[in-house]
Amino acid sequence: MTARSLQGKTALVTGSTSGIGLGIALSLARQGANIVLNGFGDVEGPKAEVAAHGVKVLYHGADMSKPAEIEDLMKQAAATFGRVDILVNNAGIQHVANVESFPVEKWDAIIAINLTSAFHTTRLAMPAMKAANWGRIINVASAHGLVASAQKSAYVASKHGIVGFTKSVALETATTGVTSNAICPGWVLTPLVQKQVDARAAANGQTNEEAKNELLGEKQPSLQFTTPEELGELAVFLCSPAGNNVRGVAWQVDGGWTAQ
Known catalytic residues? Predict the structure, then answer.
């Protein structure tokens, strides 16, 4: 893509103060898009990283399990920038347990944040996208949106749900300039995954590198992590003219995980 190809566009990325969301936000900012950040934890650091690319940044701390806060997030984004042109639904949480002992409150929270929040942001962004006859909805799903793993029933259900939601929205917007697609990463070396690696290394008396290779070897044939930057560049592609007729895709970036 040409430099600053998203100049004048606004991208809202949920769950974007670290990890995959921040990686995508930074890639879009490099192309000139103004960014609406959302998430918990450190805020000033991510804001500074994004602003360093010469774009405007708005932060909103909406809890993505709460529809009223999501509505305020979307209102503030529209009030600041006019409309949301690029919506990246990335916010997500995880819990691991067998289904019979899965805490009900954890199930409800995972479905709310991983799936229902994308419904709310999409329904609120869509009117302005349709009016402009241009928009990009990018849902960060997972390899677990296509295949399952044990003890992850809520996460797998939510990610399969987001893939189906992506396809339905793509069909509803098929004759417009609005597209809807999902990105399905496998293992990505985010701070949360690094904690899993560290815990595995400590528990098994392994080096960090041994723990990484063991983790990857269970699912990901490439034996290498996907990076947030790679996912960000795929998002940039989907926002480009080359992505105009990419609709309803669940795009694997999983090192061969779902090819098996």
Answer: 155
